[in-house]
Amino acid sequence: MVKITVDGREIEVANDTMLLPALIEAGIHVPHYCWHPKLSIDGSCRMCQVEVEGSPKLVIACNTPVREGMVVRTDSPRVINARRGVMELLLVNHPIDCPICDKAGECLLQDYSYNFGTRKSRTDEPRRKLEKRKDIGPRMILDQERCILCRRCVRFCREITKTNELAVFNMGDRSVLDVLPDAPLANDYSMNTADICPVGALETKDFHHKLRVWFLKKTPSVCPSCSNGCNITIQHYRNQIWRLMPRRNDAVNDTWMCDQGRLQYAFAHDANRLRLPMVRRGNTLEPCGWDAAVKHVSDALRATAKKGGAERIALLASAHFTNEELYLLTQLVKVLGLRHVAVPLVTGSGDAFLIQPEKAANFTGARELGLVAHDGGRDFTAILELARSGQLDALYVCGSDMTKLVEPTLWQAALRAVPTVIVQDLFAEPLGQFAHVLLPSLSWAEKSGTFTNRKRRVQQIQRALEPPQGQPSDGEIFAEILGQLAEGHWTFHPAEIFEQIGKEFPAFAGLSLASLGLLGAELAP
Amino acid sequence: MATRTVTVQRPAAMDAPRGVVRSGVAVLKGMWIASRHFWRNLWGFMRGKPTVFTVQYPEERLPQPPAFRGMPVLVQMDNGKERCVACGLCEWACPTDCITIYPAETADEIERFPQVFDIDMSRCMFCGLCEEACPEEAIVMSHNVEIAAFSRRGTVWHKEDLLVPVRELERTRFRHIRKTYERSTEP
Questions:
Q1: CA triplet A26, A41, A154: central angle to 5 degrees?
Q2: How far apart are the CA of A102 and the nearest CA of chain B, in angstroms?
Q3: How sure is the predictor about B12, in pLDDT bands with cuts at 50, 70 and 90?
Q4: B112 contact residues in A (CB cutoff 8 A)
């Protein structure tokens, strides 16, 4: 640690850092565009200039190492004048089309212009005309006029994805950000360039002209698309998700997330979502009340268990459930004495960076809670085989992942052969036509709880969207069913259940929702 | 219950016959005044110069001063399109949340336009903050106050209902708001 003096205040900082991160760490804000905590230093924007005693000129804080006894001024007239000069030059060619720019409201050029800029432009010359709305990739568009040439995106493509699509072409005042004609910005992480762009030059097509950012409410959560568990912020408004943005967590995803995960949110607010429980009467499914549906399920399970024994009931849990919901499922397994339990898991392609082949957020949680390899149980294709050969009287299916894993004829034949099929899913398709009881499930954006990622890190998700009034969460459905089948009082409060998990599973011992915080914690080995 | 009697002393003037004469005179006086106005107005109307202040609304309307704030309207440019670019600042500034905008993209030079622009007039309080917030001079307060409707749904005005040609607003409202908000030129 070294001691430096900033604006007359003595602070202690790590001795191997640059000045700018040290100042940010100490809570002193120095404006900057090109510096990013996860990218190399470029020093191109000149916005972070500060005065260091002993140095004849102003120095850029992002590329000046700290040393013992350094005396720094971040608010002297010289510094403020330099910033104003930088701002004025950056704005010389900026189109100032803030009213139609998606970045407006979270734009650093806007913010610093308010704080440090001059209010009036002194130029009469026409502004540089460049390409606007340029289609540079399947998910990105570029506005060259807005670009301030900080080169964060160029460094991102060079250092993080190592694909080198973006580059600054030409020199001097003719510099322009562009892609090569035959190499579009199409890598799996391309939309991160819109996040790190300090202005509105790079925008995602997904959010282009959708909503002004100041209307968005932000709820910290975890990406549900794969087992990596990237930390995200769900940005929602009018009970609809408008975009997902990565949230910094150095242990999981730094400040990035993949495009695939970022674009998978529309299902959560889909108008075709299943919202009312249904019970089959004859050939049709008819909506019924929640109490009646739960009673139907528990009666069916109880009667089957009594008649044919737990041998003739199978449970296919979902790897998309939270730890708390899966815990209640373990209790259901215990109460009924089930032996056929499995968790279908969709697998796909992965890469060496963030994208994992396991396409579900909480398969690890299911494994930790003992649902995956239950005593005497079989994997899910074996359960389908049992069903098809008529050895099951009741089948409780959560989620429709299994339909993506085996041939339609196989799972359809299996479901047709079972007298009582209970389906709990987000949509009536594809399993609804085989269900005898259909229970609506809640998406990850509508519930609170925890996910365990592939590195056994437990992270919190929080409710962003409000489900329709009266629709219980999956955990509440399980608690209701348990209340019908077992002694005792069953309720579903994620914090309490999480505490209970900590008592029963040594790996979770000592953890609480409060101690997880926003960044999560790893399970005990 | 014991009865208590109070004798009321009537004033002498109210007694007949002098009182009858006096009240008769008062009635005639009133009739004279009323009929004088009636004949004078009738004469005035016949000559085309009425002497009363009554305005025969809705056939007759008084001109409003430029600062008068009626319902907000959208400025329609000469090409028939709205000037609004759906930036959402009025939606944000609105204290009663009566504005709803859904932006969309076009191939025009101004690439953004409001696909939906609804104002719930039953919630609008004519404060004019939308007009002040607008960077494009695209929403202005008009002189129209006729926003009554037969249903709640009818109080929601859509984009097509709100458009007013720019020529109609140029002389009245624009001059006023440029002065009020110290804008030197049009945006």
A1: 130
A2: 9
A3: low
A4: 99-100, 209
Decide if A298 is inside a domain: yes
Task: Please answer yes or no on whether A100 and B89 come within 8 Å at the CB atom.
Answer: no
Q: Which of B6, B32, B47 is the last residue of a domain?
A: B47
pLDDT at A375: 47
ipTM score assigned to the predicted complex: 0.81
Give the CATH number, domain containing residue A435.
3.40.50.740
Please judge whether B105 and A211 are an interchain contact, meaning their C-beta atoms are less than 8 angstroms apart. Answer: no
- Residues B85, B149: one domain? yes
* Domain final residue, candidates A269, A293, A318: A269
Please indicate whether, in this complex, the C-beta atoms of B87 and A215 are within 8 angstroms of each other. Answer: no
Encode pLDDT of A33-66 as tens digits.
999 999 999 999 999 999 999 999 999 999 999 9
Rg (CA), chain B: 29
Same domain for A301 and A320?
A: yes
**Which residues have a Cβ under 8 Å from the Cβ of B124 and sit 6 or more positions away?**
B71, B72, B96, B98, B147
How far is the alpha carbon of A462 from chain B, nearest alpha carbon, in Å?
26
For residue range A349-408, list pLDDT tens digits in order: 999 999 999 999 999 999 999 887 654 445 788 899 999 999 999 999 999 998 998 899
Do residue A298 and residue A316 come from a single domain?
yes
Q: Tell whether A258 and A379 lie within a shared domain.
A: no
- The domain of B31 spans 16-47
Q: Are both A146 and A50 inside the same structural domain?
A: no
Residues B32 and B102 placed together within one structural domain of the fold: no
Confirm if A313 and A339 have CB atoms less than 8 A apart: no
Coil/strand/helix, residue A80 = helix
Quick check: B1 pLDDT over 80?
no
Question: Does A98 contact B at CB distance below 8 Å?
Answer: yes
> What is d(CA A325, CA A497) in angstroms, rounded to the nearest whole number?
9
Q: What is the DSSP letter of A468?
A: P
A140 close to A205: Cβ distance less than 8 angstroms: yes
Count of structural domains, chain A: 3
CB-based contact A334:A324 (threshold 8 Å):
no
- Smallest CA–CA distance, residue A409 to chain B, in Å, is 43
Do A263 and A308 lie in a common domain? no
Assess whether A377 and A286 both reside in one domain. yes
Please give, one letter per residue, the 3-state secondary structure of A41-65: CCCCCCCCEEEECCCCCCEEHHHCE
Chain B residues touching A121 at Cβ < 8 A: none
| φ, ψ for residue B103, nearest 5 deg | -75, 160
- In this structure, the answer to whether residues B107 and B164 fall within a common structural domain is yes
Cβ contacts of B87 on chain A, cutoff 8 Å:
98-100, 104, 212
In a domain, B161, yes or no: yes
Q: Identify whether residues A366 and A399 lie together within a single domain.
A: yes
